[in-house]
Amino acid sequence: MVDDHVRLRPVAEEDLPFVEALRTDPDLCGPFLWEGWRDPHRFRRRWQDDGWLGDDSALLIVARGADALGMVSYRRVELTGPVWCWSIGALLAPEARGQGLGSRAQRLLVDYLFHHTLAHRIQAETDVDNIAEQRALERIGFTREGVVRACSFLGGRYHDKVVYSILRTEVPPS
């Protein structure tokens, strides 16, 4: 999948050190995603299991040319009865932030999921203090739905998250 110079691709074995560093180094993942010291090899084990392309969750590399810039992910969230949706997330390397690349990558992911799955809803949750992510989601058509209070624990305190969503019917055909 390509958008301008940004594309999404499956995780390759040579990407694993990048993925591990981006998710486990507090200076790289930033204040909204660092969960403390955990097993960094869990990413390699998951890749060996299914290449990070499972039926209920997946991870893709955000790339420009041969350079890995970050990653996007999605996971299935059960709603009511037979209804489910995808929850998406993005994490870019510090040098790739602030250039609109995250918005482009997430829009590519939305297009991919609506073209290749039956989901009618895609949602994203982000820390209430992560204004850059909130703007990125709004820029690509997500609607702010509300705040879930004290639903994550990072840096020694509970954090509120803002929930955003976009429906299949809200995305113009490409």
Describe the SSE topology.
Blueprint: E1 2-3, E2 6-10, H1 16-24, H2 26-29, H3 42-50, E3 57-64, E4 67-78, E5 84-92, H4 101-116, E6 121-127, H5 131-139, E7 143-154, E8 157-167
Parallel strand pairs: 5-6
Antiparallel strand pairs: 1-2, 2-3, 3-4, 4-5, 6-8, 7-8
What do you see in this structure?
By secondary structure, the chain is α+β, with helices and mostly antiparallel strands. It has a single domain (2-170), classed as 3-Layer(aba) Sandwich (Aminopeptidase), CATH 3.40.630. The protein has helices spanning 16-24, 26-29, 42-50, 101-116, 131-139; strands at residues 2-3, 6-10, 57-64, 67-78, 84-92, 121-127, 143-154, 157-167. Strands 1-2-3-4-5-6-8-7 form an eight-stranded mixed β-sheet, sandwiched between helices. The two termini are 13 Å apart.
Summary, kept brief:
The protein has 174 residues and is of the alpha+beta class.
Please supply descriptive tags for the structure shown above.
174 residues, alpha+beta, Aminopeptidase, eight-stranded mixed sheet, globular, Ribosomal_N-acetyltransferase, GNAT_dom, Acyl_CoA_acyltransferase, GNAT family N-acetyltransferase
